[in-house]
Amino acid sequence: MNKPAANDATKKAKSSVPAVEKALDVLELLTDRSGGLTMNEIVDALGRTMGEIYRVVVYLTERGYLHQDPRTSRYALTLKLFELSHRHDPTERLIHAALPLLERIAARTSQSCHLGVLNRDNVLVLTSVQSPLPAGYAVRTGALFPVSQTSSGHVILAFSPEDVQDRHIARQPEDQRAALARRLARIRHNGFEDTPSTMITGVRNLCVPVFDTRGVTAAITSGFIGQVGDAPSAEDALATIRLTALELSRSLGFLPDASPFGAALTS
């Protein structure tokens, strides 16, 4: 009966790097202690020995991640982590990670696809890839659409915090709110949206969320058009998009097993 727990412990042991684990424990601990901690306080808070922690703290200080106050002997975080996190624009990083995967979707499905993000009450298309076929439907990079007209906007909203959804629903006409709430709930349950486009007749929107460490960050959408011949079906295209969106999310630091949406996204 205890095999799953034992297997998890074994996997954790195999992937564990003790020195890195200790360093991250120290950094994460000090994130919540704005006034800093002494060496003894760090050791006590982490439940480790002085021998385990002393050299890690000294090394992090030498590398500039921690600073020791000479008056109180307390260690606190410096701004180095902040500087590192802002050295690359997050939008550029998202596009850089997504573009080759979008190109792969287009090649495997013979359909165009694009990556959209929320921009207030609109969806902004960050990047798009056309179908490799001579003719098809595509959305222009940089295009801006009202959330109400897009699958991307609804998919992102469906996986956003409840207060974000509630504010958006409250801004809609009263007679549309219940239907919108049901739509968002259905998307959350399914892990995607497959619905006719409200803008282009004959186009079927296949839309899947993309996550990073903070939560939902974007959506991949393909405006599916039926092709004559042996082109993949809409169901095959959706399966490809779902797998690719999960791959992109993992590359951005998303951990499905730790997310309440993990089951819907991986099923």
Automatic annotation (TrEMBL):
SUPFAM superfamilies: GAF domain-like, Winged helix' DNA-binding domain. Keywords: DNA-binding, Transcription, Transcription regulation. InterPro entries: GAF-like_dom_sf, HTH_MetabolicPath_Reg, Tscrpt_reg_IclR_C, Tscrpt_reg_IclR_N, WH-like_DNA-bd_sf, WH_DNA-bd_sf. Residues 80-254 form the IclR-ED domain. The lineage of its organism: Bacteria, Pseudomonadati, Pseudomonadota, Alphaproteobacteria, Rhodobacterales. GO terms for molecular function: DNA binding; DNA-binding transcription factor activity. Coiled coil: none annotated. It comes from the Bacteria. Residues 17-79 form the HTH iclR-type domain. Pfam families: HTH_IclR (PF09339), IclR_C (PF01614). Gene3D superfamilies: 3.30.450.40, Winged helix-like DNA-binding domain superfamily/Winged helix DNA-binding domain. GO terms for biological process: negative regulation of DNA-templated transcription. This is Transcriptional regulator, IclR family.
